[in-house]
Design a protein that fits this description.
The chain is an alpha/beta fold. It has one domain: Metal-dependent hydrolases (TIM Barrel), CATH 3.20.20. 37% of the residues lie in helices and 26% in strands. Strands 1, 2, 3, 4, 5, 14, 15 and 16 form an 8-stranded mixed sheet that branches. A hairpin with a 2-residue loop joins strand 15 and strand 16. Helix 2 packs across helix 3 and helix 7 packs parallel to helix 8. The chain is globular, with a radius of gyration of 21 Å. The relative contact order is 0.16.
């Protein structure tokens, strides 16, 4: 039996913080004790925070590693291993890797399918015990596409698909209600001319009109086949939320208005916002600020989105904002685990997985000192 004792730590429990010690046996939390004493052989945490490992439900970080620059493709195994190590280094111990399903293989603005191949490579590395943390799949179902049905059919209930999110990027609604924001984002990212941008908008609008309803229904059905949690994306109005609720959605990613976030809570749907939004003080798309939702008690879960290190920083910021560190950390641990249907992690409780992170604060900024997965140090 392997055993490790973490002593003299500020334990972040589900509803409070407590100076005490934690004993881990065979990858599980075996005992929690109050007090600052340090038994012989224990890890002296020196008063640092000791919290559950962070649970990331939506990150584009793997996509950034496989394509570090536009039109630059990186070897997938190397990219997956680097992505995995980066997440471990910032305290993330469970991740739902976001992969787009639904492509546009025709026309000038085409983009190719990649999710099935990448998922197979990731799952193979996992089977070979090459990864440090726990990986699940998050399929981002793009309804404004040509190939969504065929791509989703390639996945099964054995592929660890934990989340399917309904992504509707029709110009002029949801995330990009403001077309000028869409123009700035798309033209800057893809170096398009005005004429090419206009063609892009027309193409997506036509795809939504022709295939959108069919694709949305297919994505809902496929999520049920996988046994995955359904999520909405960029709900803007109460009507959007009512549609999400009718689909059985329990997680709303990045609602764009206070109206939508409030409607989510009325329907029992958890609200997830981006950590970069909170840290930067607002949305890069001009939508509602995460801090505004936090101050209205309408924010339940944080996602690092496109900056992995943002997850810890934003959770600690919420702990300070609410004057309740346990509540802030819960937005990236317990609440995320509950939303994803993972009752064995995301909390410091006897019997839970010993996925743990030791965190110091340097002039208020959190610094990850060490990360453990099932009691084994991985960073």
């Amino acid at each position: 039996m392997s055993e490790t004792v973490f002593a003299n730590a500020t334990l972040v429990l589900p509803t409070e913080t407590l100076r005490g010690a934690l004993r881990v046996e065979d990858g599980r939390i075996a005992a929690i004790d109050a007090g600052a004493c340090v038994p012989a052989g224990a890890v002296d945490c020196g008063g640092d925070l000791l919290m559950p490992g962070l649970i990331e439900l939506h990150t584009d970080n793997l996509e950034r590693h496989i394509q570090p620059r536009p039109r630059v493709d990186w070897p997938h195994a190397s990219a997956i291993i680097a992505h995995d190590a980066e997440l471990a280094s910032v305290g993330i111990t469970t991740v739902f890797d976001a992969m787009r399903v639904g492509s546009i293989p025709t026309g000038k603005g085409r983009y190719k399918a990649y999710a099935r191949q990448l998922a197979s490579e990731l799952l193979e590395l996992r089977a070979r015990d090459a990864l440090r943390i726990s990986h699940f799949l998050h399929l981002r179902a793009e309804v404004c596409s040509e190939t969504l049905v065929a791509e989703m059919a390639e996945f099964t209930d054995h592929d660890r698909v934990g989340i399917v999110s309904l992504m509707d990027h029709t110009p002029g609604q949801r995330q990009f209600r403001d077309i000028s924001k869409l123009r700035q984002y798309v033209m800057g990212k893809n170096n398009l001319s005005e004429a090419e941008f206009a063609e892009h908008v027309a193409n997506l609008t036509e795809l939504r009109a022709r295939l959108g309803d069919r694709h949305e229904a297919a994505a809902v059905a496929e999520a049920r086949r996988y046994g995955a949690i359904l999520a909405s994306h960029d709900d803007t109005t109460a009507a959007h939320v009512a549609t999400s609720a009718a689909h059985g959605i329990k997680l709303a990613e990045f609602p764009t208005t206070v109206e939508a976030a409030r409607a989510c809570h009325d329907h029992g749907i958890a609200v997830m916002m981006g950590a970069p939004n909170l840290i930067r003080g607002g949305s890069h798309s001009g939508n509602v600020a995460a801090r505004d939702l936090a101050e209205c008690d309408l924010l339940d879960i944080l996602s690092s989105d496109y900056v992995p290190s943002a997850l810890m920083m934003a959770a600690v910021m919420l702990g300070d904002l609410w004057d309740d560190m346990a509540r802030g950390i819960a937005t990236v641990t317990r609440a995320s685990a509950d939303a994803a249907g993972l009752p064995d992690r995301g909390r410091i409780e006897i019997g839970a997985r010993a996925d743990l992170v030791r965190v110091a604060r340097i002039e208020g900024t959190p610094m990850v000192r060490a990360t453990w997965v099932q009691g084994r140090r991985v960073a």
